[in-house]
Amino acid sequence: MSAIGELAALRRTKAERPKPSPAEQGDNKAALVFLAPWFAGLALITVGPITASLYLSFTDYSLLDAPEWTGLDNYIAMAGDPRLFTSLRVTFTYVFVSVPLQLAAALGLALFLDRGLRGLPIYRSVFYLPSLMGASVAVAILWRRIFGNAGLINQILALFGVEGPGWIAHPDYALGTLIVFNVWTFGSPMVIFLAGLRQIPRHLYEASAIDGAGKARQFRSVTIPLLTPIIFFNLVLQTIFAFQAFTQAFVVSGGTGGPIDSTLFYTLYLYEEGFANLHMGYASAMAWLLLVIIAALTAVNFFASKYWVFYDD
């Protein structure tokens, strides 16, 4: 068939296609109407404030006066701010210690619940509950009571004749109490781990058992490799959440960063600069630095995942 004949056949095919009905044509319009509130919220609540904070990071803004353009002064000032580096050290310690411990606790409990216990939905709900309440002020206040000088922990130690320290008031222990707090909120990754364990084919365990593999070898050679995508997902998600931790540090430390700034989280220092000292321009620059840090670590995690995450295709 010549090129002219093929073109004519193509035109006939298009002409023979039935035109969409008015109802079908209106589907797109209806979808846009229902999506309009979401797009409005995205523009007004997300994109707008992000753009404004980027502008404010280059200004001197006290919330009371109009912002005054200062260029890179805020970013230069951050390079010489000792408290900012203290907050980074505290935050990185918190993230790199609490997140692995949290994921280990979540995976261990998921393995226990995967054994087919009676009343599994009840146990799953009970263990998931701390994740729902972990960022609340009420639970943070309760945590402060537990680790206070006359709190529950010291009362239990007193039964054995041990005088407990001031967990929150002592700089050597204050950050540890917040790390334990974050580990305690393992419910969310636990549920995800449990769902991942349920997706591992049982015949792989049966085949490995026939080959003589014990429980430990099955865990290393079957469970962990097939669970690496779930581990990676939880690692990225919980790392981002840990960098954004604020409520527990603010309430447990009384909003002061704890003894000698031992619990001065980056977000707590950002809040202090923006709303206590009214250095909103400087706080905006700090917020963008936090965004860069989280984005960089997430990119590193994605790059490193090529060497240890196994996708069963």
TrEMBL record:
Main location: membrane
Parts of the chain that traverse the membrane: 31-56, 92-113, 125-143, 173-197, 224-243, 283-304
UniProt key word Metal-binding: no
Domain spans labelled ABC transmembrane type-1: 88-301
Xref: PANTHER family: ABC TRANSPORTER PERMEASE PROTEIN, ABC TRANSPORTER PERMEASE PROTEIN YESP-RELATED
Protein name: ABC transporter permease
Membrane topology field: Multi-pass membrane protein
CDD domains reported in the protein's UniProt record: TM_PBP2
Origin species: Streptomonospora alba
One GO process term, biological-process aspect: transmembrane transport
Entry's Gene Ontology cellular component terms: plasma membrane
Higher taxonomy: Bacteria, Bacillati, Actinomycetota, Actinomycetes, Streptosporangiales
Claim: Cell membrane is one of the keywords in the record: yes
Location of the protein in the cell: Cell membrane
Domain of life: Bacteria
Family under the similarity heading: Belongs to the binding-protein-dependent transport system permease family.
Gene3D superfamilies in the record: MetI-like (1.10.3720.10)
Keywords annotated in UniProt: Cell membrane, Membrane, Transmembrane, Transmembrane helix, Transport
